[in-house]
Amino acid sequence: MSEFVVNAEKRDDKGKGASRRLRREAGNIPAILFGGNQEPQPLTLVHKDLMKQLESESFFSSILTINVDGSEEKAILKDLQRHPAKNVVLHADFQRVVPGEKVKMTIPLHFINQDKCAAIKLGAKASHTMNQVKVISTPEALPEFLAVDMQNVQEGQIVHLSDIILPEGVQIEALRLGADHDQAVANIAAKKGA
Q: What is the pTM assigned to this prediction?
């Protein structure tokens, strides 16, 4: 698992006007750290530092270390508010994690061994219907991504959520609702004209 450290400062100014000033004048963004057994803590983050970390896919599915004026807390990125037209983050929400307490996270899917799939070598096409899935896990078992092995998938075969091999302690949220929620993740379609 990647180790990301988010440096932050405590924020005393609250409200819409204070947040706008923070973004406009200092190049910072407002954020909040909530959860656990503690009160929510308003924070200030440096926008350019956060944008650099957001370039990594694993930032969204990792346990982050939030460094607030020298004290460190473990958290996950729960939500980001982005500007609708500009590449700018307006606000970030971080949820504290408690060891042993389960969290819900959206984890990316990585499709591996497609180049070794016999059907694809013969001209069939792989189609991915999902690129992420919501899981429930303890912070210690949380994976950066889930691998979907496409090597032995046959032409016309559909890969479902239940076909994904999960690390110990990780559950796919949809599968907890029953077999009706076992959605398709990928398939191999026959070559056109075949």
A: 0.80
Q: Does domain 4-96 have CATH number 3.90.70.10?
A: no
pLDDT by residue, tens only, the chain of 194 residues: 458 999 998 987 776 766 666 677 768 899 999 988 889 999 999 989 999 999 998 899 889 999 998 899 999 999 999 989 988 899 999 999 988 889 999 999 999 999 998 888 888 999 999 999 999 999 888 899 999 999 999 999 999 999 999 999 999 999 998 889 999 999 998 877 65
Nearest to 30, CA basis, from 174, 183, 20:
20
Burial of 48 (0-12, 13-18, 19+ CB in 10 A): exposed
Residue with tokens 């180049």: 115
Give domain 103-189's CATH architecture: Beta Complex (2.170)
| H runs (alpha helix) in the chain | 16-26, 47-54, 118-121
Residue ranges per structural domain of the chain: 4-96, 103-189
